[in-house]
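Why predict the complex rather than its parts? Because the way molecules touch one another can change local conformation, and only a joint prediction can capture that. The input here totals 1496 residues.
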Amino acid sequence: MTPDYQLIEIQTLASGDTLQIPVYTFQGKTGNKKAYIQANLHGAEIVGNAVIYELITFLNSLNSDEVQGEIVLIPMCNPTGVNQRNLFFSTGRYSPYDGNNWNRIFWDYSHENVNIDDFVRKNINLSKQEIQANFLKDILNKFQEKLDKINPYRGVSFSEDYRNILQSLSLNANYVIDIHSSSVSSIDYLYCFDYRQKSADYFLLDYGILMNKYDGNAFDEAFLNPWLVLEKKLSQARRNITFDVEAWTLELGSGMKVNEESVKKGFKGIINYLSAKKMLNLELITPEQKTKLIPKNTIKSYYAPQGGIIRHRLKEGTKIQRGDVLYNILSFLKTSITPTIIEIESADEGIIYDVSTNDTVNQGEYILGIFPHG
Amino acid sequence: MTPDYQLIEIQTLASGDTLQIPVYTFQGKTGNKKAYIQANLHGAEIVGNAVIYELITFLNSLNSDEVQGEIVLIPMCNPTGVNQRNLFFSTGRYSPYDGNNWNRIFWDYSHENVNIDDFVRKNINLSKQEIQANFLKDILNKFQEKLDKINPYRGVSFSEDYRNILQSLSLNANYVIDIHSSSVSSIDYLYCFDYRQKSADYFLLDYGILMNKYDGNAFDEAFLNPWLVLEKKLSQARRNITFDVEAWTLELGSGMKVNEESVKKGFKGIINYLSAKKMLNLELITPEQKTKLIPKNTIKSYYAPQGGIIRHRLKEGTKIQRGDVLYNILSFLKTSITPTIIEIESADEGIIYDVSTNDTVNQGEYILGIFPHG
Amino acid sequence: MTPDYQLIEIQTLASGDTLQIPVYTFQGKTGNKKAYIQANLHGAEIVGNAVIYELITFLNSLNSDEVQGEIVLIPMCNPTGVNQRNLFFSTGRYSPYDGNNWNRIFWDYSHENVNIDDFVRKNINLSKQEIQANFLKDILNKFQEKLDKINPYRGVSFSEDYRNILQSLSLNANYVIDIHSSSVSSIDYLYCFDYRQKSADYFLLDYGILMNKYDGNAFDEAFLNPWLVLEKKLSQARRNITFDVEAWTLELGSGMKVNEESVKKGFKGIINYLSAKKMLNLELITPEQKTKLIPKNTIKSYYAPQGGIIRHRLKEGTKIQRGDVLYNILSFLKTSITPTIIEIESADEGIIYDVSTNDTVNQGEYILGIFPHG
Amino acid sequence: MTPDYQLIEIQTLASGDTLQIPVYTFQGKTGNKKAYIQANLHGAEIVGNAVIYELITFLNSLNSDEVQGEIVLIPMCNPTGVNQRNLFFSTGRYSPYDGNNWNRIFWDYSHENVNIDDFVRKNINLSKQEIQANFLKDILNKFQEKLDKINPYRGVSFSEDYRNILQSLSLNANYVIDIHSSSVSSIDYLYCFDYRQKSADYFLLDYGILMNKYDGNAFDEAFLNPWLVLEKKLSQARRNITFDVEAWTLELGSGMKVNEESVKKGFKGIINYLSAKKMLNLELITPEQKTKLIPKNTIKSYYAPQGGIIRHRLKEGTKIQRGDVLYNILSFLKTSITPTIIEIESADEGIIYDVSTNDTVNQGEYILGIFPHG
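Output of the joint prediction:
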């Protein structure tokens, strides 16, 4: 089957050139669920483009009766981010225009002045499908209302315009998968929301971070949070529903890298997930082991206690015990005649999941992160 | 009187050099209130250093019995920010290390898991002074508790370390004044919190923004917000108190500029404010007119509807009517053979309070802001 | 008359989007000279786009018999440069990829291993027109030879590819005009090459810098230098020729600004120049005064002797005497308890022609420039 | 033996803080030669700091009679460069103030308006030692003359001030070693000047680039070039002398990395070189194989022929034949519905010596470099 291909304009540049995003849509013969998969929201996190390329190639090889519903794929979803450079470094993590983290700009319906309690009262006795449809309608109406309010003279900031484009393509999806990588050097893992732990295993990854603490307005969170709020309020009203709506962020390896192992894992995991969700008629791979989920608020981050040069830093994936030497700092402090070396020990037991790719630090720069008891 | 002078180390750099902040403290013979004044939290917003220089010079000329309490002055309060360059541009608005806006990193006691209701119950019958003292003690204890929890091996991010230093110097103040300027080209104005409108006029500025909407974790807000929360809860418990605690952000002119008019206004306003607060034994200037306060959520921002070159943009301070032409965009869109000029009309009546200093824009970049009915 | 309009692709971006430059060509009914005019080679120097817009509008209003030869106009000639941002600052003075100054990358035929002495021997007895034609042929052949050598697998750096595109459009011109502005805040002036002083006045500007010292590989210089080398060698062989080939860089006002006065001056000067060169059948304006040419190696630059805040800096256009106070630095040096103010006096008599737009400096940053005896 | 330790101030910052460089001097009991070794001129090239640390530790363990002459060591020789960040990337390759490549700013005596022919005439009959002493005196006098001409009001740009400091410490050395690394990912190699090939082997590295083509004003080149010019002119006057003056740039591994293997190689090579030069009384290691020197103008660089994502790129150190696939580009060009993969074959036989560390490219970005026949 061949996808529908659409180019959506996202920005005219000062020069008069235009940036666009490509949208590949595979439409199954039957089924009405929707999966939305994007890659490269942060400029340096490019690996997902290769995953999407493999997905397109694979889906091209299927017949349309092997796909249920609609699968939307957006590689290179942030041209501004991926094209940005300082020397050869990919520095497109933040908007150059307003400093916003590209993954903290999204609209969360539940942050609007809306009365979800009222919605619950009115819908409590309807079927799960009806409630899901009605709530989606409310979300889309409110979203449209906000679009309609944009004054053509005032315009909108690029961050807002851009988020509106991505969310207009994804708000009505059932499954949202946002493929990132670490910005530094990292193992593969995913972000999992509370009440969606059961599906995490389908991605066949060893580790996940359980989102028990939100930064706010991330793409996955802005999509799923309203549904989680609704589920909670329904539950308080003694109606326990888990809607067929999920959001995932995959972290596949390191920034500025296309690690082919990570590409394979990402591809395999997504295919398996879509099969589990009955959007692909493929045999499901039963995970050999459960994805170990680490509560976000328990993750330990290490920062340089002083400026200098890092030596002998342990690598991502290393299991460590309390007291193990994680790294050394060699400093030529101007207050000391002799250069000094400080050994930094681990205050934690666990697994190192990511490490900074720069071996020189100013005080307070990031060194590495640990999944405790990982 | 001469101030106490102290240097506080804030960061050792990779090179082994050290950044410090200077703290000037003028201690009056009597009085126990504290005013804390800092400048240059954002790298480009340098004007406040000149204001503080004028304040130091002026306070030097007073006797210690002309000052009541303690006045703490920190110019160049963010060395990392002010030293940062891209070409000759001051780009230090965000931390280069983690992308955080330097003025969105501060700790807000009321965001902690603390039971203010319980505090209200226990303190409701005490005097205003006692309540203020007890609440301050709780804030400082919680702050210290967080400092104590920092593991020396894990360290802390520079953003967190830096905020801890500034807040350790200011959390126990009565009056906090954070001198900024616009990052672009701007008139002089201030930010005023709800329930503090009465004091705004003492600064003798024409305009202010009324903070009816928070971004979160700004320096002024993180300082005052816990007190506003407490006041609200006391009020709900039928005890109406306005504590002798205030926070102000002054916006004195434009980024990368020391406008001497703005320096004079800032100096005069602060002296007058401190006199009004009885920290200086000087004659109070009665404001000729009240500071016009514009609710933050009513401010109108204009963004470029397409990329190109800005011509004939109106200047900050211009009064405008709906339909007035605010600016033109000259575009050489690659989709059009002939270059185009678009006239952008105002959708609002009011006063232009700031305008971008760059006459070229990509779509969605900031153009200007309007105080409606200003 | 309407121009021919052509879009030339200059770069495919990581995202798959494409940057192009627009080429407007006005072809007169008769005449075979060529003028080539471009704008915005440095990202922040946008004013020339407005000048070219005014030129297009004006030429549109002429009949094709009012134009002799070919006038080629390229606004927004460097999309990479003009679109680049750090916050709202236009930082596109250097290539983000290799750090090259966009105006130091151009190919200079005379730097090739070519035997111009031999050319002189063979052509010494030909007419001026024949020599000019033969030398141009040699330049274009060598240029083509270099293009032909590019291996498709090895590719070329973007700097090289880009210069090839601009030079393929301009090497065969008679008159090259490259419209810049100062990157800081500046009066209007031009750059004039030796032996071309006579034509400078036609641009009707008060000041010019006489290029008696080259940086190397600037656009204007790379174009004209081979001709100047040839003229010198012919002169040594007792044949004095000034070829009908000229190159000019106009500096119209300040960076990031479209100063409408500068636009008018630039437009008027170029029209007058083209009239003087008989490419436009318009009445020539006789300059009221000659352009004062300042030898490049006599210009005086002032740099901050220490870090701090600049106050009371004189403005561009100010006439100054030796000993005049140019500016003050307010410093909060950590080695001094009291802040210090240093007055910097002028070591020169002349006119201030540009000043930095940032009022804060690290030691060694640029403050202002003086045309001595200007 | 313990070194003399000196801190030299290089810049006061806007904030009032100061940057310094540390100078470690080991003075042997006897001998009058001088070796000057610095590290980290480019911000990302940090490995040399670890090499210098190992050298300091080693020299500390020697007695002063084991050292002949003076060994000067400057780690962290460019604080501005090493401290600079964009996110966690070390972007300090160019001065943020003027865009100059930190290693293209140095003063070359032979570029001055000096008459070396005259020097040759006057010195031709003196001994090698006398000529060397006289020429050094001329260099130092001219250098001092330039310093004396600096007007305190005009000041100098930071680039010039900084170069003056480093060159005042090194111009009178016999041996200059500047420890860099590649800015990307690279094997270890060195830069060798013509007529100094014999000494290259002492560094015990497999590869070197023979400097048959100069960029101009690099640290090593600015130091050695005047001597090479003198040697050439003496040779033309039939006096063949190789002065006891050498300059080396070592490239030890990759940017932002302290590869411990590279540290060991660098340390071992420098110790061996100093032994060969009789500055250390240690047994000389005879190189097992000669350093293979690749003429600079034969090196092949590969640049992306279009924008996209790099996959399957060969690694540094790989031997390749003509026709081998070097890498693939995956592109989502907006002009093509289906994503495309291009295989790039090698046009050269040799060894890949460095590769870019970013797997995403805009057209014209660097991919890798090949030492042909390496």
